[in-house]
Amino acid sequence: MTKFVVTPANVAQRDAWAGGAIPEVERVRPGLWSVPVPIPVNPLRYVLVYVLELPDGVAIIDAGWNTDEAYDALVAGLAVAGYAITDVKGVLVTHIHPDHYGLAGRVREMSGAWIALHPADARLVRERYDDAAIDSLVERERELLRRCGVPELTLDELAGASMMIRHVVTMARPDRLVEDGDELGLPGWDLRAVWTPGHSPGHLCFVSPARRVLFSGDHVLAKITPIVAVHPQSGPNPLADYLDSLAAVRKLDVEEVLPAHEYRFLELAERVDTVMAHHDERLAEIERVVGSLDGAACWDLATRLTWSRPWETIPPFMRRAANNETLAHLAWLEARGRVRRVAGEQDLWFPA
Question: Can you give the pTM of this predicted structure?
Fold first, then answer.
């Protein structure tokens, strides 16, 4: 398949991403700024925090990781726009992953801003980030990986792989719950929430019909595709949720997409089509591998798939993500009768 290449809305921002740099703070259009906030030791390098000017301050979409470097970058970016951290009135969080939600609590402590989340993600906050609850989540992940056939020698390492980044999150319960279709009520903005589950159960995009822009979070990115995986806090078929959500945003009449990573771009519908075609190809590949093995655990299937680098070079955290992404595609195929699962100590997958 020939992949459609989107048109960058800002070539300098695209070039910074392509060159391994962090782009400049940018005035996107009147009343709207883009502030790159660095992500430590991560190939994504930064999250784009969007600053929406209000009559009495600003609201921000996402916040970044809770590190001093990220906080200082956010403060400096706000200053370029002419604002201080104390001017932040609200934090619209697209989803609860650390690079989007991690700094939200610290921003609220400094400014008194409200924090908004979708209820489906709000329900996950305590188990994900509270020290008193995290052991249960790790144990559930360990059981899921065991049933996927992860070798015992690496089971504990993979189950607890995300613990290394918990320190970059300040657990903060939301002040506002935002449902699909809700108007955000920001003065001067006709911002509406679009629920787009898949990457997380409560992922939100925000659309402004008047400005014809979509703040897409991780749902639709210019180059890469977000992780869509089965895990203890996901639904049973997150890939179906994700593909349905893509179809929903494809219908939006926008001229520009403002994602949380990489760079701003045009051509939403064409990019959505490319992402959906990518998953069609992945589903077909997994179905072929299942047919060739005639009874294999998810982990064994994952090791035989095509990845962006050799399996042996993929670090443990990303191997877990790869396994759980493979499981999401298997769940989609199972729901459509294209493969079948035989449950056991290890679940085995067969051709339908």
Answer: 0.96
